[in-house]
């Protein structure tokens, strides 16, 4: 890490390792509860009547309203390309805005608009089944291992614009690289108070990387999950390797940004990224050849609350 760089060691730079530690713990616990003590712990098949596992659909469908050409907040949007171009302008402008903060009592200059980050496991299925007892353990385990840190507008790797880069500085995240080709659906809403809200759903992608695909140009994606597995000594595979047995699908996530059209300042925003992991032939310690799926939701809310800034990094505004 460069000298003086504001780190995010509890953020997405460590998320992959955290996820697989959690996965290993929950896989072992699930097998113990479900297989060893089936009479004591109720289990149910995933997906309800159809029996299809949650999040298993690979069809990339719009989950937001269709774009309607028109004038919103005094701005004319004729096409999806117009919406994306305006969004990029707004993104780039807001990442030029900074504000004074104090961190551990020291004066700092960070993005004016900082957001929080949250990571939640919404579903864990082992051999197509879920367990209510295990589901109750997930929030506690996640809370102990993952603690979000403040970041700029997504995608972003830092709260300090001078360090908001990825891939050893090759990717500049003070600028949006989103294109109309990256967008599956979008719409614009006039709020009637001088602001508009732009909602964007990027196209789905597999094993997304920062700035390399539709998801990576819009969200703080997880990057090389399979490469992390080599660091987890208790996790191996009965057939093939990580590349053969770990499939990661990003789809269905959206971002909602409210903009003051007179100033182009973002007044609030919410990004929700959704990820589906499909893991096969997994061995964890004495547990052999198990398949599992994990559904994740990673969100960023802007502006971050004062409580979040203070509790996460001892930051105060002003």
Main traits of this protein?
318 residues; alpha+beta
What's the layout of helices and strands?
Blueprint: H1 15-36, E1 43-45, E2 70-72, E3 75-77, H2 80-94, E4 98-103, E5 106-111, E6 118-126, E7 129-131, H3 132-145, E8 165-166, E9 171-172, E10 183-190, E11 195-202, E12 205-206, E13 235-237, H4 242-245, E14 246-250, E15 254-260, E16 265-284, E17 287-302, H5 306-313, E18 315-317
Antiparallel strand pairs: 1-7, 2-3, 4-5, 4-18, 6-17, 8-9, 10-11, 11-15, 12-14, 13-16, 14-16, 15-16, 16-17
Helix pairs in contact: 1-3
Tell me about this structure:
- This protein has five helices and 18 strands.
- By secondary structure, it is α+β, with helices and mostly antiparallel strands.
- The strands form five sheets. Strands 6, 10, 11, 12, 13, 14, 15, 16 and 17 form a nine-stranded antiparallel sheet that branches.
- Strand 8 and strand 9 form a beta hairpin.
- Helix 1 packs antiparallel against helix 3.
- It starts with 14 loop residues before the first helix and ends with a strand.
- About 7% of the residues have low confidence.
What form results from the Cα inertia axes? globular
Judged by helices, strands and strand pairing, the structural class is alpha+beta
Average pLDDT works out at 87
Radius of gyration over all CA atoms, rounded: 21 Å
